[in-house]
Amino acid sequence: MLFSSKSAPSPAQEVLRSVFGYEQFRHQQQAIVDQVIDGGDALVLMPTGGGKSLCYQVPALVRTGTAIVVSPLIALMRDQVQALQQNGVRAEYLNSSLAADEAFRVESLFRQGDLDLLYVAPERLVTPRMLDLMRQTELSLFAIDEAHCVSQWGHDFRPEYQQLSILHECFPAVPRIALTATADLPTRREIIERLNLQDAEIFNSGFDRPNIRYHISENQGNARDQLKRFILNNHEGEAGIVYCLSRKRVEDTAEWLNKQGFTALPYHAGLSTDIRQENQERFLREDGVIVVATIAFGMGIDKPDVRFVAHLNLPKSIEAYYQETGRAGRDGLPSDAWMAYGLQDVITLRQMQEQSAAEESRKRVERHKLDAMLGLCETHACRRQVLLRYFDEALDEPCGNCDNCITPPQTWDATVAAQKALSCVYRTGQRFGVNYVVDVLRGVDSGQVFERIQNFDHDKLSTYGIGSELNQGEWRTLFRQLMAIGLLGVDYEGHGSVFLTDAARPVLRGEQSLTLRKMPKVDKQKTRKSNVAFSGGNQKLWEALRAHRKTLAEDQGVPAYVIFHDATLAEMVERVPQTLEQLGRISGIGERKLDAYGEGFLAILQEYHESAPVSDTVSDTLVLLSQGLTPLEIAHRRELTLNTVYRHLALGIERDEIELEDVVELDASELEALGGAFSLSEQGGLKAVYEAFDGEYDYGVLGCVRAALRL
Predict the structure, then answer these.
(1) What pLDDT sits at residue 266?
(2) Which of 136, 345, 435, 700 sits at 20 to 30 Å (Cα–Cα) from 444?
(3) Which domains does the chain have, with CATH numbers?
């Protein structure tokens, strides 16, 4: 407990309980609150969802006077003021969205001392009129939210923030608290310098968000399909944000997701204010809404149950990525940060950098930040360790909750392949783009491409045709990795031609070896020849599915892979779908094949489900349950769907290895009601019971209850 029953609560503790409904402060909140209440300045570095707002809202209600909160976005002000008003706090905001009479009303309340907190845009705050108003009113504190906006090197620079040093000059006795969730070391130094916070106490709560699982993959050309499977298998019916680089892609993606059966709303600066406002309100108030947005959306959005943040394009910096992914899981529950990116993202972002009107020094910083973002994508180490290292925070052990930890990527000695690529770039004159260099490496010998190669006499180069061991996609991946680690640069004024950097020379000369993340094989012939070995109970299902596929293929006179690839059958074995809808979520099963073959494969899967022995994968799930993990945590740890985990647990119950109470908490009356519903349903089906209780219990829980009743 924060305080014992023998002592009376402090004013701050009483405000926390009576106004906000919390019994105790978290982490460093108590120390921060005490610092500000006592009149001291503070710089607060706290991850999204860590409770930054309370660090100034509680002192504002304890100290006399009105607290001035500097906030960069209208939406952020409105949401926080509405939340405070719901708690009975006298809070208002002043920004350009207010009509003149409404602004006058707020100013009058402020002048009369009838406000606890006043949220103000930075542009308005530094005007002579606002400064005069503040001189006429008793002030309790200044809170500068999103303080990273003060840094010209940060990812979200706001020039007007740099004028906020005037607060200390005009009101030296009023304590100031600057808060941010996103600031690397140079940005922190600039916050201190620009805001004159040299004497402030620094509170660094760390940047780790352990409840977020990071997953970054290469866009193989079907990113939207990858996104669809990710949502269906992990977050169906849950709220999420999908970030895209352009307005057009935002609208196209939102439209596509709606056609796939999701509720998806676009959000970007090109939409009218009314549409943006309506879409944001629906996202905040309705369940299961997905917002597809540019980076214009999200700052200050206080929605705790965003279960996933997805990126269909590469963010421009690690700070941007961290801030955007931080909008997931503010409630502390398991959430996902998912991204699919490609080489075109790198080219587009670098073109935007080079074409901007910024000074060369600014461009240099932006290039560095983008390179760091690419490094996070291309690393084969723990993503969280790389992410935190960027913010000068060490994580001693791999996190166990990112894709690289859960499924460690293979690495390979890429020295020879890199030497071929670098040499070909050099010998072709460092004036061609990636695609052309790859064509030379692969020895293309027909069509217009070959004519172009001949025109430049590049078919006579020693590097012509020396790269036949890799296909086009694999070479492009290698080039992207070489760009990511800084061995190749891109001349954007030269139409995207690639050139060698100084860092490439040791590799090219054989003085330095190069280990890279292993590239995925996409060669169709190799895919057809591949086979997947299963053991235990899986083997029986695997063979049954293969036999059925063979029969279908022979009847139609086509190769077996034309029906379904081995990878598709392997996913069926792993997930064991029990409905056509679930089967349709398997990678490689489109609507037409689902109509043509779904019933036959589903019958085999359902038959297996009823008779399947507890396999090794089920045992792994039961071990994690015995270690105290919840089903959702097990799903994240093992990278399975929640339905799959519940199916494992139901099998464990049927085999009397675990008990129902180990999985779900149901009282006697609930069990009795569920038992009665199962006895009345035909063949003990889950759907009838699910509908009888209006979806109060999900299918996974019902499956476990049915297993216990059978036992």
Answers:
(1) 94
(2) 345
(3) 11-204 (3.40.50.300), 212-341+384-392 (3.40.50.300), 411-517 (1.10.10.10), 524-611 (1.10.150.80), 616-710 (1.10.10)
Asked whether the beta carbons of 190 and 222 are under 8 A apart, the reply is no
Q: What is the pLDDT of residue 307?
A: 92
**CB neighbour class for 440 (10 Å; exposed up to 12, middle 13-18, buried from 19):** buried
Helix residue ranges per DSSP H, 70-217: 74-86, 100-111, 122-125, 128-135, 166-170, 185-194
Half-sphere exposure at residue 620, Cβ-oriented, CA atoms within 13 angstroms: 11
- Angle, CA 497 vertex, CA 493 and CA 501 arms, to 5°: 100
Residue 142: name the closest of 1, 265, 47, 43 by CA: 43
Three-point CA angle 640, 576, 614, nearest 5°: 80
Residues 646 and 635 sit within 8 Å (Cβ to Cβ) = no
3-class SS of residue 398: coil
Please report the pLDDT score of residue 681 as a whole number.
62
Give the pLDDT means over successive 10-residue stretches in the chain (711 positions).
Answer: 53 84 81 94 84 91 94 78 83 88 92 94 88 92 88 64 84 92 79 86 87 89 88 90 92 94 92 88 85 73 84 89 88 89 80 77 75 83 86 86 88 92 95 91 90 93 93 83 77 72 92 81 35 48 86 79 75 81 77 86 82 63 82 76 81 83 84 82 66 77 85 68
Identify each DSSP E strand in 545-644 by its residue range. Answer: none
Within 13 Å, how many C-alpha atoms sit on residue 502's CB side? 0
Nearest to 434 by CA among 346, 382, 498: 498
Collapse the DSSP code of 551 into the 3-class scheme (helix H, G, I; strand E, B; otherwise coil) and give the result.
Answer: helix
**Residue 182 near residue 47 (C-beta atoms within 8 A):** no
- What one-character-per-residue DSSP string does 639-657 give? T--HHHHHHHHHHHHHTTS
Distance, in Å, from the CA atom of 562 to the CA atom of 553, rounded to the nearest integer, reads: 8
Structure-block tokens of residue 615 = 């396999």
- Residue 301's pLDDT is 65
Q: What is the pLDDT of residue 621?
A: 85
Picking from 648, 528, 639, 638, the residue whose alpha carbon sits closest to that of residue 576 is 648
Residue 706 tokens, joined: 């049915």
Distance CA 34, CA 47 (A): 20
pTM over 0.85: no
Is the Cβ–Cβ distance between 178 and 43 less than 8 Å?
yes
